[in-house]
Amino acid sequence: xxxxxxxxxxxxxxxxxxxxxxxxxxxxxxxxxxxxxxxxxxxxxxxxxxxxxxxxxxxxxxxxxxxxxxxxxxxxxxxxxxxxxxxxxxxxxxxxxxxxxxxxxxxxxxxxxxxxxxxxxxxxxxxxxxxxxxxxxxxxxxxxxxxxxxxxxxxxxxxxxxxxxxxxxxxxxxxxxxxxxxxxxxxxxx
Length: 190
Known about the structure:
The chain is mainly alpha-helical. It has a domain at 81-189: Cytochrome c-like domain (Cytochrome Bc1 Complex, Chain D, domain 2). 29% of the residues lie in helices and 0% in strands. The protein has helices at 15-38, 81-91, 104-107, 164-167, 169-173, 182-189. The model has no long low-confidence stretch (mean pLDDT 81).
């Protein structure tokens, strides 16, 4: 006695069944989301009473509710208005570089978030700004933003400089960055 087996058609899910599963799944996700929100696991801003807004319309009136921390400044070299003004002048002056062709702002440009918008910065010998900079020494890291750098406890990517005063020497003397001899720079500035 031999049995013959006829192939049977595999049933395909009907579009009604698919829609039903989709609706149930969507309802489950909606209920789960509502539950998470109601338990406070996912924070959301509360409604503000009428007339109570986070700012009074004046610049700087919103934001931090506490004072900035103290900057890392040396006691033996206090900050003065004259030093701040000199720092602003030197920051944009290419005299700090060996060829007098790049300033601090070349790699830490204000319009680029005080950085250079590059994955790897381009230092000494380069031409241009930001991503358009070319023909210079490639530095194997990006220029970090210097926005609020005075509040950092250490400077540089690896933290090798204790403060901005110590940090300022690094790029100026680096042969891949500004490539300037400090003694020649002092003579040039006089």
